[in-house]
Write a structure and sequence with these properties.
Length: 489
Amino acid sequence: MAFTPQRGVTPVPAAGVKTYDLEADVVVVGYGCAGASAALSASTAGSDVLLLERAGGGGGASAMAGGLIYLGGGTALQKACGFEDSPEEMYKFLVAATGPDPDETKIATYCEGSVEHFDWLVECGVPFKESFYDGLLAEPPGDDGLMYSGGEDAYPWNEIARPAPRAHVPAVEGKVLYEKAGGWQLMRSLTAAVANSPVRVETDIRVDRLITESDGTISGVVSRRYGETLHIRARSGVILAGGGFVFNDEMLGLHAPKLVGRLKVGTDGDDGQCIQMAQSLGAAVRHMDAAEVAYCSQSPMLVRSIVTNVQGQRYVNEDGYFGRVGQTTLFSQGGRSFLVFDEEVFESVPEDQRPGLQPTWVCATVAELEESMGVPDGALQSTVEVYNRFAEKGEDPLFHKRAQYLKPLCSPYAAIDFREAILGVFTIGGLRTDIDGRVLNLEGDAIPGLFAVGRSSSGIPNWGYLSGASLGDGTFFGRRAGEAVAKAG
Ligand SMILES: Cc1cc2nc3c(=O)[nH]c(=O)nc-3n(C[C@H](O)[C@H](O)[C@H](O)COP(=O)(O)OP(=O)(O)OC[C@H]3O[C@@H](n4cnc5c(N)ncnc54)[C@H](O)[C@@H]3O)c2cc1C
């Protein structure tokens, strides 16, 4: 199949541009968390900043997010909630959990600057309540400000680094779980900060191409608004902050075919245009096949059940991060799994913590269940027999699920058929950048005047993901890129 970028991405030579419709020192493309942070910091550093957004206002996927922001190393919020953490422990965890091939330099920078970055978010007006959420939902149902979000306290990470909760969650007045959550509040605060700054915002502008000088320097963008082509000059540089590419099926097919047909998590702005604009200039990319994959069940059910493959065998510890269970299911099991539990487990989880989940089969014996599921004769029986024998002693020698979630399964047994279940995905691969957001070409050299942040770039969420890593990395490296381009100008 021939690959056709949707709107054309070939750069436009500056020599051919007669007039510019708009002009600024720094042009930021995309008004999500990364673009807002980049614009604010470039403006604070003294640059004249123009922030361009294809939608009618700022927000992007950032505003839809649960709002978990992965920070640590001893933030004021961690301390207020009584948790000890250090940049070193955070680094050890992130290097292990975001691998393979973690970006160690970015992680080190991120861990060192994390405490200060939290303070910056607070200065921007992002509210955090000093309370810890001790539950298992993907985001706190109330306004608690801190929670675990990456399986830090589960195997194997609890043996690699001292666990600490690091998801910092903005408090939301009138919260509606999974709809009006911390991401909405984060963007509400950041857009208010932008409105109170000299940053100029232009909406309903879709950027399609970059403008290049004869020496290769990026000096502007070509965009469309209401059928009109606009040329926009960037005197110091362009920051691409246009999100990922989960809404571009052609790019998914090329780079991340396992994501095709899955539930897309994001906005239609996640069409990869920003990534392709830079690729057309020889920019390198990293881990384009990587993705956050949300498992089909919420953790309250997941941790108390066993997850098996279609052969009836366990393949992961169910009490780890639900995104890791999802990733493992998608990448090692073709996205097919069964959730196996018993009546006692089902009844022990409040209905609002297992929304929509109903057993596909309920049987008096594991043998009957196995037959209903179409699992090879004896396979699930052997899985449950081994699980139960050790669960009785509070042990899980195969996958090290923690004792608090281990309970022998007993009759009546049940399972949910997740073979065709929908796994929610968004892309985390993107442009290769340095710690200041400079876009690097295939030889590792910076493309002059071009920066990328947030999910247009590959960052802390590298291959392994943990909730909060995207908003954390987007705002953190957004700020750094804003400062760097302002300094370069
Ligand atoms: C339901 C949901 C829950 C999530 N929960 C969390 C969470 O709790 N924690 C976490 O860390 N992550 C979470 N994520 C992921 C996270 O929201 C995104 O990965 C992150 O917001 C990306 O930030 P960004 O600034 O790179 O992109 P975005 O916030 O998507 O912003 C990009 C903006 O650029 C605009 N744009 C794109 N192309 C162009 C163009 N060519 N011209 C002009 N404008 C353009 C888009 O319209 C968009 O407004 C969640 C995502 C979803 C959808």
